[in-house]
């Protein structure tokens, strides 16, 4: 959509109440339209790219989201200070907040989103379910557990039938969802879902639905205006998920029957019209992969979605621009036809080979691939913290057909470089190359069949690149070290490394494997050294972190291995990642068995239990609310003599 559609100025100034890549993406459209942008930032984001890109920026609080990006009063105060007539909430945080919408109305500020009534109905999964049922939209069998005791929930669950999906009534993004295979697992699932829902959304209400065994997750992008018009802008396939978090999305969906597509679009418009919807929204459905004729409403997200770029790529629209137009009271035009195919991959700061644990640290080098769309929240020098979502970038490839789009995405991921934090780029490439993905034979459990994921060992070429870099590295001001060629040629493409030396070097991987780096030829790799002296190497989408070992280091390692061979299991239970302690599951002095959950640690909206290493008596080393480092002991389990 072009600016020619706007005959008068929409808004003079818009505050972007978000961070990261979505803030950058909104600011980009505002700049193109000549609208002044105001960013907000927490202390953790003071140097973030979106802060520099905006025309103005206002600090809203310390790093924790609850004290900054979720603080409605701070957002409204920032809008007033920046002279904003409207607030764009992006996605996540306050994007579906009734409180923010009401505060905007009270302050005379336009909320770039739906009405308070729409938020109240569709923002609560249980209310939305009851509402759309009354308007003839099909739903998955289930029930609202609000106000029911655990005993009553168990009775209702038996009536619906197992397996069941337990999910919070408020919020989205898969947070708090639990799959329950049988009645025995229900109690633990309810406790976990309530705890996560209360922490993430301030509401621990739950709904339970029958689990469709081979579901496909398909959503429809809808738009409504204040003149009563609702249109559908095609569907998106969001089936490739892990733990209910989307990993790859595409538009249109992968080969669903035309009759099913018609039902999806019709049901989505019907659901949006039932609440007189205004603005951008997404109606989400489940379709049984084995019986794709039926569609079931899941929920409606009353905001822009993370995956909206694939819709933009196949429709030619700028959905943020369309949001601004609708918020300013302009009428919608007819929905354009869909052309071609677009596929998006989400790059997360996480380690697939370590169970997808979040990764934090300083980005030593970020290089985005050319020829595709990249929406990123990082740049070289960015700090990835544990306070926010682990998604750091999205890569979107477009082509006339699905097979070519997937190939282009795979090739683009191979050219994407992130050094300094672990990412899922290599895993995304494996998905692009998977036969079932290529064939479009999708269901939400597909990724689980590829797990556990084992990273390939570094190649000889990668080791040679690390060797050459270590022999010729040059210190940088920030404390990391880059090769001379990189320091002198900022913005260059691939570093061509050659090594004329003869001295052998030994490296150790993060999982303890010791590798000899022999002299090599030329290697297309990117290399950098972090502040701890570890060498990061990236090639063809794969990244490895290597620690150089000198003679003393090798000797100490041999001694440690010998000691481990003759002693019992280490008594300390250690944090698998940096984060905050959100639950302590045992009491001081309790007797536990090996594998018993001791504490749970949360980082980047993910919760992970720390288990007892062996049988014994527990001595707790942390409490709820403590912040811990990766590998920090959180409890000690003493074995009985």
Q: What does it look like?
A:
- This protein is α+β, with helices and mostly antiparallel strands.
- 28% of the residues lie in helices and 30% in strands.
- The protein is built from 17 helices and 39 strands.
- The strands form ten sheets. Strands 14-13-10-11-12-15-22-20 form an eight-stranded antiparallel β-sheet, with helices on both faces.
- Helix 1 (20-32) links the parallel strand 1 and strand 2 (36-42).
- Helix 12 runs antiparallel to helix 13.
- It is globular.
- The protein starts with 12 loop residues before the first strand and ends with a strand.
- 50% of the residues are buried.
- Mean pLDDT is 89; it is low at 1-8, 474-480 and 482-502.
Q: Tell me, rounded to a whole number, the average pLDDT.
A: 89
Q: Estimate percent helicity.
A: 25-40%
What gap, in angstroms, lies between the N and C termini? 74 Å
Strand arrangement, largest sheet?
A: 14-13-10-11-12-15-22-20
Stretches where pLDDT falls below 50 for ≥5 residues? Answer: 1-8, 474-480, 482-502
Total helical elements: 17
* Biggest beta sheet attributes: 8 strands, antiparallel
The total count of strands amounts to 39
Shape: globular
The class by helix and strand makeup works out as alpha+beta
The fraction of residues in strands falls at: 25-35%
């Amino acid at each position: 959509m072009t600016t020619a559609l706007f005959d008068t100025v929409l808004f003079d100034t818009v505050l972007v109440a978000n961070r990261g890549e979505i803030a950058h993406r909104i600011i980009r459209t505002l700049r193109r339209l000549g609208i002044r942008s105001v960013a907000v930032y927490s202390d953790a984001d003071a140097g973030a790219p979106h802060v520099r890109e905006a025309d103005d920026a206002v600090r809203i609080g310390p790093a924790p989201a609850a004290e900054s990006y979720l603080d409605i009063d701070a957002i409204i105060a920032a809008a007033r200070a920046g002279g904003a007539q409207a607030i764009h909430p992006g996605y996540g945080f306050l994007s579906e907040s009734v409180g923010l919408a009401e505060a905007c109305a009270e302050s005379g500020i336009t909320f770039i989103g739906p009405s308070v009534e729409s938020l109240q109905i569709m923002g609560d999964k249980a209310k939305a379910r009851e509402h759309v049922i009354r308007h003839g939209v099909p739903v998955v069998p289930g029930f609202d557990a609000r106000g029911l005791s655990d005993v009553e929930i168990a009775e209702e669950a038996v009536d619906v039938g197992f397996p069941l999906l337990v999910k919070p009534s408020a919020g989205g993004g898969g947070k708090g969802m639990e799959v329950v295979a049988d009645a025995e697992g229900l109690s633990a699932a309810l406790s976990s879902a309530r705890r996560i829902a209360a922490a993430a959304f301030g509401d621990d209400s739950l709904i339970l639905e029958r689990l469709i065994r081979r579901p496909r997750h398909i959503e429809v992008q809808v738009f409504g205006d204040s003149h009563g018009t609702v249109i559908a802008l095609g569907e998106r396939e969001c089936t490739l998920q892990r733990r209910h978090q989307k990993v790859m999305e595409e538009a249109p969906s992968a080969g669903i029957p035309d009759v099913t597509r018609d039902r999806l679009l019709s049901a989505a418009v019907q659901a949006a019209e039932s609440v007189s919807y205004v603005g951008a929204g997404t109606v989400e459905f489940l379709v049984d992969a084995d019986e794709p004729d039926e569609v079931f409403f899941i929920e409606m997200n009353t905001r822009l979605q993370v995956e909206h770029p694939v819709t933009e790529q196949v429709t030619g629209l700028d959905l943020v621009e369309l949001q601004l137009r609708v918020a300013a009271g302009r009428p919608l035009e007819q929905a354009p036809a869909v052309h071609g195919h677009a596929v998006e991959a989400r790059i997360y700061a996480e380690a697939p080979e370590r169970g997808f644990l979040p990764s934090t640290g300083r980005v030593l080098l970020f290089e985005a691939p050319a020829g595709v769309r990249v929406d990123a929240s990082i740049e070289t020098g960015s700090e990835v913290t544990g306070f926010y979502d682990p998604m750091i970038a999205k890569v979107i490839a477009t082509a006339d057909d699905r097979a070519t789009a997937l190939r282009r995405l795979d090739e683009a991921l191979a050219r994407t470089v992130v050094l300094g934090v672990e990412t899922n780029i290599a895993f995304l490439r494996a998905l692009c190359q998977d036969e079932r993905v290529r064939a479009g034979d999708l269901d939400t459990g597909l990724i689980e069949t590829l797990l556990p994921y084992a990273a390939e060992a570094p190649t000889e070429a990668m080791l040679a690149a690390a060797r050459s870099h270590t022999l010729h590295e040059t210190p940088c001001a920030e404390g990391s070290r880059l090769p001379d060629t990189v320091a002198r040629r900022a913005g260059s493409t691939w570093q061509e490394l050659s090594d004329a030396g003869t001295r052998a070097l030994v490296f150790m991987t993060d999982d303890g494997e010791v590798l000899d780096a022999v002299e090599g030829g030329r290697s297309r790799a990117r290399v950098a050294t972090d502040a701890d002296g570890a060498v990061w190497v990236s090639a063809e989408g794969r990244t490895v972190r290597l620690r150089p070992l000198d003679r003393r280091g090798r000797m100490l390692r041999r001694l440690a291995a010998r000691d481990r061979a003759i002693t019992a299991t280490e008594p300390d239970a250690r944090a698998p990642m940096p984060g905050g302690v959100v639950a302590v599951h045992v009491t001081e002095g309790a007797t536990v068995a090996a594998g018993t959950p001791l504490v749970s640690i949360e980082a980047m909206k993910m919760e992970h239990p720390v288990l007892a290493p062996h049988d014994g008596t527990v001595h707790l080393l942390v409490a709820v609310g403590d912040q811990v480092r990766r590998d920090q002991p959180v409890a000690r389990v003493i074995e009985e003599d």
